[in-house]
Amino acid sequence: MKELKVGLLGVGTVGGGTYAVLTRNQTEIARRIAGNIRIVQVADRNLALAEQVTGGQVALTEDAFAVVNNPEIDVVVELIGGYTVAKELVLTAIANGKHVVTANKALLAVHGNEIFKAAADKGVIVAFEAAVAGGIPIIKALREGLSANKIEWVAGIINGTTNFILTEMRDKGLAFVDVLKEAQRLGYAEADPTFDVEGIDAAHKLTLMASIAFGMPVQFEQAYTEGITKLTTKDIQYAEELGYRVKLLGISKKTSEGVELRVHPTLIPEKRLVANVDGAMNAVVVKGDAVGPTLYYGAGAGAEPTASAVVADLVDIARLQGTKPEQRVAYLGYQLDQQQTLPILPIAEVHSAYYLRLRATDKPGVMAAITKILADMQISIDAMLQKEPAEGESEADIVILTHTTQEKTMDAAIKHIELLPAIAGQVTKIRMETLSR
Amino acid sequence: MKELKVGLLGVGTVGGGTYAVLTRNQTEIARRIAGNIRIVQVADRNLALAEQVTGGQVALTEDAFAVVNNPEIDVVVELIGGYTVAKELVLTAIANGKHVVTANKALLAVHGNEIFKAAADKGVIVAFEAAVAGGIPIIKALREGLSANKIEWVAGIINGTTNFILTEMRDKGLAFVDVLKEAQRLGYAEADPTFDVEGIDAAHKLTLMASIAFGMPVQFEQAYTEGITKLTTKDIQYAEELGYRVKLLGISKKTSEGVELRVHPTLIPEKRLVANVDGAMNAVVVKGDAVGPTLYYGAGAGAEPTASAVVADLVDIARLQGTKPEQRVAYLGYQLDQQQTLPILPIAEVHSAYYLRLRATDKPGVMAAITKILADMQISIDAMLQKEPAEGESEADIVILTHTTQEKTMDAAIKHIELLPAIAGQVTKIRMETLSR
């Protein structure tokens, strides 16, 4: 096997981790592949940082295009992020016949179809294990480990920042805004946390997993995305009393009507393993028709966990040098010409169970009125929790867990309930998943 | 890609599942690899069963050697089990230049070095995802997904029968023998359950994982194996009171003195995900130096979960047809000529924390005597539970959790404690693992 020559774009957190892991574990890696992986050029706008990370052992440049155009390089590792320059760099590397490894979920979720097409035309590999759930080898599990299965659904905690925030909200009873500030102070959340807390980052990752699971092109723009900014500790506590945990889940299911592709806060029975994944950790549950439910757990972010995935992709590429494209795993699990553009269900069409919280005046007939509305819409009640009004208040919280119904039916029922004179303000609605079948 | 022609040896549970999954999901599989996998011949001593499983769609034979010697066949799937005929069949298939897929952990744990050597000489693949933890793609995770890491340890619930029994003992407070009978009635345990309940099956699987993790030949005969037959519900309950669950774990750690390779009942903090893996399910925790701890969970046995792994191996082989051996993943993760025969630590040399249960006469000075013995041996106490004597009894249970010490030190301390006049009978010792670092 000839040496695999790597060009590294970006020496931030993951880039630095990649350099460190490749250097520290080069002996083990060489014993595994009977070959060598060597970083021959590094690009970063911060040359001082690049110098510090590499210890002056490697050629440095401020110009990432110098790397993707360097004829000596076999594979480009793109760790810059974003949609614009990163896209141009990746497409240029591909045009130059180089393999690409990237951790850039945003890029692939939005421009994946174009990028994979370009790579197929040039016969090069685009590997992206690090783009989903950090160090957890979930892309490999979905593309290869479960290749015997019809995948029925995928559901995962795939954003560490929000899982950290939800865990803290539950453990310490703190409000979202306060935990967010703490998370920002600790470096678990960005200064602008929108991508994380609004579920966009999770939707990027879910988009990639869903494409692999169901053999369809990426369709990020069709994903339903709802973040955790409106979640209250009250709802987390009520859920707990009823035996549930609240997690930001990315869920994709194949149904006879279409594919569900949705990210939102979700109640999960506390007995499920995935309900007990706390802090910044990630976990993905995959249900296959043959294997049943399987779960993959680990660090979803951080320098070395993400580098673990980047380097594993490099090891695969090193081994696969000289193979024909059909001897490699398809980019998104299915051969590109075998993908089917399945319709993504609008959220109104999705079936789910629900957690509802209402504030109602404590007088006779309220409960009868609410349950009549639900019954009229064929929505069954699974559990109910009626709280006493707080000292000096006349309104009390009522929590209702429903059986499965269609979202638009639930929304119509909620509209009716909100019109009841005894109901104060809006009804809080959170979706529920049992993840059992 | 040319069609991959498969010969199937054995149509029992897993063989039947393999036929069913390959048939049912042939469209998805063909879309993934742009090729076809076809079972062209099936061998089973029970021709009527083979006829029933295959619906008369495939050539049948009672003679497994007819399959391994069939020049039309590319890959032999060995699902017969055992060490003798299975070994001859696998070696003959290899000698005939055929790839092999097997679920036979016993065969590979005991004869793996010989079999992989023979396969390397002929340049054929021997794939065995189904041999460890059924449908969980743990072999792929260890060999490929975590290839960037120095693996530090592996710990898993890798025998569904014993995990089912332990879960029932805990949930229902029933004794081992009673649950075993129930498990046999339900088909979760064999008529002769020795391989499962004595930890031998788990040790086979652990042997394979340890070889991959640490780059060493299989050394099953060096594994320490202790089953669950002597576990009492009392110990399970006391562990619970102290915040622990008891699981039969296969544990392999690389230390500076050597490799630990051991299967035994183990106390695990209840907060760990793996402590909450119940029933017949399996889970493996792998700690890598870059990725940190990762966990893989799913069905460890059963027709279709195991078939999921068998067929995934076939998909890999179909794709890899025409590749050179160096373009494939090494059998045991590391290239055969790069394996190192690391010493396996005898159990007396292993460091562990311990759960001890003693029965002591309830009189002054007993506790002082016990704690003095431990202190003299430099064994620190982490927690203690002293029970009141039952009505009408003069002896009471004392439970002690220790910090880490060497097994031989612990055993010497136990010998001293058992000599105390106030101590009745033997001290019960169960190892503990935090699985945190």
Automatic annotation (TrEMBL), chains A, B:
<feature type="active site" description="Proton donor">
    <location>
        <position position="205"/>
    </location>
</feature>
<dbReference type="Pfam" id="PF03447">
    <property type="entry name" value="NAD_binding_3"/>
</dbReference>
<feature type="binding site">
    <location>
        <begin position="9"/>
        <end position="16"/>
    </location>
    <ligand>
        <name>NADP(+)</name>
    </ligand>
</feature>
<dbReference type="GO" id="GO:0009086">
    <property type="term" value="P:methionine biosynthetic process"/>
</dbReference>
<comment type="pathway">
    <text>Amino-acid biosynthesis; L-threonine biosynthesis; L-threonine from L-aspartate: step 3/5.</text>
</comment>
<keyword id="KW-0028">Amino-acid biosynthesis</keyword>
<dbReference type="GO" id="GO:0050661">
    <property type="term" value="F:NADP binding"/>
</dbReference>
<keyword id="KW-0791">Threonine biosynthesis</keyword>
<dbReference type="InterPro" id="IPR005106">
    <property type="entry name" value="Asp/hSer_DH_NAD-bd"/>
</dbReference>
<dbReference type="Pfam" id="PF01842">
    <property type="entry name" value="ACT"/>
</dbReference>
<feature type="domain" description="ACT">
    <location>
        <begin position="355"/>
        <end position="432"/>
    </location>
</feature>
<protein>
    <recommendedName>
        <fullName>Homoserine dehydrogenase</fullName>
        <ecNumber>1.1.1.3</ecNumber>
    </recommendedName>
</protein>
<feature type="binding site">
    <location>
        <position position="190"/>
    </location>
    <ligand>
        <name>L-homoserine</name>
    </ligand>
</feature>
<keyword id="KW-0521">NADP</keyword>
<comment type="similarity">
    <text>Belongs to the homoserine dehydrogenase family.</text>
</comment>
<dbReference type="GO" id="GO:0004412">
    <property type="term" value="F:homoserine dehydrogenase activity"/>
</dbReference>
<dbReference type="InterPro" id="IPR001342">
    <property type="entry name" value="HDH_cat"/>
</dbReference>
<dbReference type="InterPro" id="IPR036291">
    <property type="entry name" value="NAD(P)-bd_dom_sf"/>
</dbReference>
<comment type="pathway">
    <text>Amino-acid biosynthesis; L-methionine biosynthesis via de novo pathway; L-homoserine from L-aspartate: step 3/3.</text>
</comment>
<dbReference type="Pfam" id="PF00742">
    <property type="entry name" value="Homoserine_dh"/>
</dbReference>
<dbReference type="InterPro" id="IPR016204">
    <property type="entry name" value="HDH"/>
</dbReference>
<dbReference type="InterPro" id="IPR019811">
    <property type="entry name" value="HDH_CS"/>
</dbReference>
<feature type="binding site">
    <location>
        <position position="105"/>
    </location>
    <ligand>
        <name>NADPH</name>
    </ligand>
</feature>
<keyword id="KW-0486">Methionine biosynthesis</keyword>
<dbReference type="GO" id="GO:0009088">
    <property type="term" value="P:threonine biosynthetic process"/>
</dbReference>
<dbReference type="InterPro" id="IPR045865">
    <property type="entry name" value="ACT-like_dom_sf"/>
</dbReference>
<dbReference type="InterPro" id="IPR002912">
    <property type="entry name" value="ACT_dom"/>
</dbReference>
<keyword id="KW-0560">Oxidoreductase</keyword>
